[in-house]
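Example record used in the benchmark description.
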Amino acid sequence: MTPIPTSHSAILRMAIPIILANAATPLLGLVDTAVISHGGSLVDLGGIALGALVFSFVYWGFGFLRMGTSGFTAQAAGAGDDEEVRAAFARALFMGVAIGVLLLFLQVPLRYFALWLLSASESVEQQFVLYWDWRIWGAPAVLANYAVMGALIGLGKTRVLLGLQLLLNGVNLGLDVLFVMGFGWGIQGIALGTLIAEWLCFLVGFKVLLDVLGIGLRESSWPWARIRHARALLDTLNTNTDIMWRTLCLLAGFGWFVNQSAVFGDVTLAANHVLLQFISLSAFFLDGYAFALESLVGRAIGARNRTLFDRVIRVATELSAITALGLAALVFFVGPYAIGWLTPDAQVQAAAQRFLPLAALYVLCSFVAFQLDGIFIGATQSRAMRNTAVYSLLVFLGLSYWWVAIGANQGLWCAFIAYVIARAVFMGLYLPRLRQAKT
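Model output (structure tokens):
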């Protein structure tokens, strides 16, 4: 069994590839945008923007396939149970493929639903349809790849994860340039390039993971009795369902923030959108430590080692706290220059700079919630995650009604900060019970 890293330097080496992989994720959208801007029209660009948004929400909603897999895999690895590691991955893989195929069958009603939700011009909608009708065929690969990613994170193979992300973006970039700039295929070329990159990333990742697990494609290589075990299947389903509800609550919270921002007018909406970019960028870094904790905590629980459990949480949280402090300082001091780069509008710049300190405070306060997410995912305590997501969302909604009436957008930001603190507080209340029961 691979030793579990416990030093600051070892955990940092484990987290850095995840941070880089996270940072590479938005490059997929940026690459599509840059290529279509040079080889297409504004209508094409609008179709890309709409399509990327819809696919982000669709796929993010099934993020439980990655999170649940990392926890189950890490615990099995910590217990030295290689068969259960393979079975946990296989259950998630089959579930991801099944959901992906279901999305293919439902692609037409889903497309109509997306167009009903999002308002756009008729010409942009036509381009979105072209993009959707090609890229949706990558759904089984994307969702199956979530299982691959979850297994790699659970096993602590973060450098492999980074390699796969770089492969995805590199192939996507090359094919985008070839199909759009070379062949002139426009938005269909963008969609086709992304589709091929997604399938190639899955196939390579699947082969690499099979090598890591020491199994092949032969039916005899898979522990079918373990895979089909009714209790394990039920646990997987329940865990994934809880994580899905938790994710929907988080989407609702951020959606509420954006919706309330729009009430204050276009300038405030734009300013808050700019500040949310700083928060999203910070999340790439803080998620790196959370992902590392998923593996470390799961493996410590699998080994039934409370000392190890406490040690990895303490060390990873110290690193995350230092990183959050640095990120908050960066947002506060460099933010004014970044705002000027992100938007040329003087009114939006002034509004964003006014609320910049609150965005920096949010970043500073958020690392605890990220760390606890990693702990609870590694421990597969999904019900507690679901419950705390509901409780904190209710706190946010209640405080925003109250504080917005008093302080308008400042009140909204204060409620948003209270939201991320509430997530940490509610999960923190569960932590002693988790520590006692799992180790």
